[in-house]
Amino acid sequence: MRSTVLRPLVTSAALAALLAAPAVSRAQAGERYTMRGSEIAIYNLVGSIKAVGGSGGDVVVTVTRGGKDASQLRVENGEIHGRASLRVIYPARRITFEGDRGGRYGWNGGRTTLRVDSDGTFGDNDEGQRVEITDRSGGLEARADLTVAVPAGRRIDLNLAAGEVSVTNVDGDIYVDVHAANVTTNGTKGVLSLDTGSGTVSVTDAQGDVTLDAGAGSVTLKQIRGDKLSVDAGAGRLRGDDIKVQSVGLDLGSGGATLMRLSARDVKLDSGSGSTELDLLTDIRLLDIDSGSGGVTIWIPATLGAKVDIDAGSGGIDVGVPINVTRWESDRVVGTIGDGQGTIRIDAGSGGIRIKKRP
């Protein structure tokens, strides 16, 4: 009798496991959505967005859910405000995101809040309900990881609140808006516009105009080719290497900047605090630096020619190249380097100013 009773119980447990297996397999494989049109928008609150170069005529999005409450997420795909939009809907006003406890995301914990419309869009205005994302327990424990395959020639808008965004080998105009997330791009062609609240930013091998509006976090730029490079950053060091553009505009709050192997006709830098170091490969038409505090070092090629006007509040001035001086004081130097065709203006509140010849 005991054997007869136990046998059906074992069979039922095995059957339940077999029935559950396909659901787990589907969740791991992700859900696939196609999007058509020249303008595409993606909205996800928590997790990651990974955009990669795609082929064919459609944008293909794969959504993989995670977290114990993942089944409560809803994905909507349709046109909003005249463009194809995919939104991951989180049915809660508080979301728990463990983030980097597993080492997978750029979210470093803490708390961020934003307003989310009922259709799942955010960032466009201040409408919608207030949503809190936190690393503390008690909220909806769910996230979504999206992979977006983008054919050439599209405009793609990627919107994420917390987590990580990466863009690799995408040929088209790319707009990224994040609240608290790391952003990494590599091998892009076209307009690249990044708007970040907090988190690190890394841009490598970008062909096209690059615009960055960053709240807090370090910024790294490498192999930039285009007409304009524009950076507005609140806090965090800016580092760049191998940059070849027509004009550079940098508005930095704190942290300072180091740009090595820079080729540009016009360079304008406004920095609140932090040291500045520029390594110029070519002659310039205008170099205009306004620094509140922190030393300024400029490396120039032997062929550079410019009218020079340097004003240092404190820290002294060191011009290590031949200069035809018309005015030299402890805190002011006016003169001409080489043929004097360009213009160099440097105004520093505190910190020494040095102009050196490139080795």
How far is it from the N-terminal to the C-terminal residue, by CA?
93 Å
Strand content: over 45%
- Tally of strands: 29
How confident overall, as mean pLDDT?
Answer: 90
Largest sheet: 26 strands, mixed
Question: SSE string, helix = H, strand = E?
Answer: HEEEEEEEEEEEEEEEEEEEEEEEEEEEEE
Q: Count of helical segments?
A: 1
Would you mind describing this structure in some detail?
It is a single chain. This protein is mainly beta. It is about 10% helix and about 60% strand. The protein has one helix at about 1-30; strands at about 30-35, 40-55, 60-65, 75-80, 85-90, 95, 110-115, 130-135, 145-150, 155-170, 170-190, 190-200, 200-205, 210-215, 220-225, 230-235, 240-245, 245-255, 255-265, 265-275, 275-280, 285-295, 295-300, 305-310, 315-320, 325-330, 330-335, 340-350, 355. The strands form 2 sheets. It has a 26-stranded mixed beta sheet that branches. A 3-stranded mixed beta sheet has the order 6-8-7, with no helix packed on it. Strand 4 (about 75-80) and strand 5 (about 85-90) form a beta hairpin. The longest helix has 28 residues, at about 1-30. The N and C termini lie far apart (about 95 Å).
